[in-house]
Amino acid sequence: MTDLRSKFLEVYSVLKSELLNDPAFEFTDVSRQWVDRMLNYNVPGGKLNRGLSVIDSLKLLKDGRELTDDEIFHASALGWCIEWLQAYFLVLDDIMDSSHTRRGQPCWFRLPKIGMIAVNDGILLRNHIPRVLKKHFRGKPYYVDLLDLFNEVEFQTAHGQLIDLITTHEGEKDLSKYSLALHRRIVQYKTAYYSFYLPVACALLMAGEDLESHVDVKNILIEMGTYFQVQDDYLDCFGDPEVIGKVGTDIQDFKCSWLVVKALELSNEEQKKLLHENYGKDDQTCIEKVKELYKVLDIQGVFLEYESSSYQKLTKSIESHSSKAVQAVLKSFLAKIYKRQK
Predict the structure, then answer these.
(1) Residue 290 forms part of a structural domain
(2) The CATH number of the domain where 103 resides is what?
(3) Into which family does the record put it (predicted)?
(4) What is the total count of domains within the chain?
(5) Which of 1, 62, 104, 146 has its CA 20 to 30 A from that of 290?
(6) Claim to verify: residue 315 and residue 198 sit in the same structural domain
(7) What angle separates helix 143-168 from helix 69-96, to the nearest 10 degrees?
(8) DSSP label at 200?
């Protein structure tokens, strides 16, 4: 795995070099250095799970045979396109949320002399993706499908972000707007498509498959992405900050979290009143009151039950798929996230 990771990182260097020398734009030394620094700061710093899973998925679709160097390069290039897409979303997301840190360091726009230039940097990150696809995939029979796929997933993610922003940030803080259906919609569009479906769809296209005939795979991956986000919501409140690498802020940020939606479902009138009065306030006493109510309602127990039933349901859906290779891909995704602690 470390070998695969180092090969993957080598491809990043190749792609970055090509972008910094793209003949469509006459770079000056200053502009080239800016983009170089911006890419290094925002693109390769995460866990790289989305990008690496393109290679893993392709290998499993090829029944586990060793991939050729060419296949590894192309799967890595697609993996990096997903990481670029993620970086683009995060750079702009941090500005919209007025966030302070990302991946253990200050958000890009918070750095001296960056500020709102970060908006344009986000646009640059977005524009790098079709440059990479054109250079390395233009001659492939699935080139148009790849362009369509990235465009569609970006469209879905941006609209998921819109629903999140207008429910969380817009106007009066009104908890009564929050429901399981709303939570699911936000998660499905904002996270699940690009984090779960996109890597597998890239691998399917590389393996010569038609995405239209794999709608069932998409549905299973969206379901998995929803389960992943519910875990995230749970860890934000109950996870160990030492393990997850950050202190959760969903309660004070008034997030449409799975926990608060379940709490609203299970609360009596008095408990609902407590939630309405304390949720979304950046005050330690209010945060503790919400957490205390979560304990009284046994939200942890409710989550463990949800986790167990989701796992069984997903496993059943995966095992009913006709292709053993596709089953292997989906099972590998599920194994990576089931019972995770961070």
Answers:
(1) yes
(2) 1.10.600.10
(3) Belongs to the FPP/GGPP synthase family.
(4) 2
(5) 104
(6) yes
(7) 20
(8) H
